[in-house]
Amino acid sequence: MAHYHETSTLIGADKVEGTDVYNTAGEHLGTIHEIMIDKTSGKVAYAVMSFGGFLGMGEKYHPLPWSTLTYDVNQAGYVVNLSKQQLQDAPVFDEDEETFLSDRAYEKRVHDYYGTTPYWGL
Amino acid sequence: MAHYHETSTLIGADKVEGTDVYNTAGEHLGTIHEIMIDKTSGKVAYAVMSFGGFLGMGEKYHPLPWSTLTYDVNQAGYVVNLSKQQLQDAPVFDEDEETFLSDRAYEKRVHDYYGTTPYWGL
User: What residue ranges define each of the domains in chain A, with the CATH number in brackets?
Assistant: First the structure.
């Protein structure tokens, strides 16, 4: 395995995927499942967090805007400022609903929910 | 496996990684090895293309700016406008030289070589 999965400024998608996600109370929320990239601009559109399910069945996916994630060295994971209750109310999809990610109305709801600037600009 | 690895506008890093890269003459140049993301901005800094080597030893890595890659459905791979000779002269590193990717002078040379706008702006 190459050593360049992370530098001071860059991180490999492989290293992000599989990383645990916690909230500021230290509760485990899920795991980064996949990085979704905007084909045109090359910006990370979402870090999709998976949670629940068993052997890949029944999992739910939360598209998290990149800027919601802060890496915490102590927890060796990402921290998002989100209670479990807030997470329950956040935009989610399951594996049969992947088309949500190409629906601008859904995407706008995601960014509105997290108060983030959409990757496609304002 | 979830179905949302690709939508009309987004693509999963997992789907990009492992994809073959060709030049416009149809010659196989290498394979996308890893997507490197700028931690601060969430922009894809490079699609690192690997080539050569055997079982991971002796491989060389080319950091390709995202905008150099065009997906070609017929070849089921990315096409870059680069002859094999140009590829030989392009910035490269091996697995012991990963620090190049956090060296702005090296990075500038990469973007100058491909004539691309650096992900950190002008």
Answer: 13-114 (2.30.30.240)
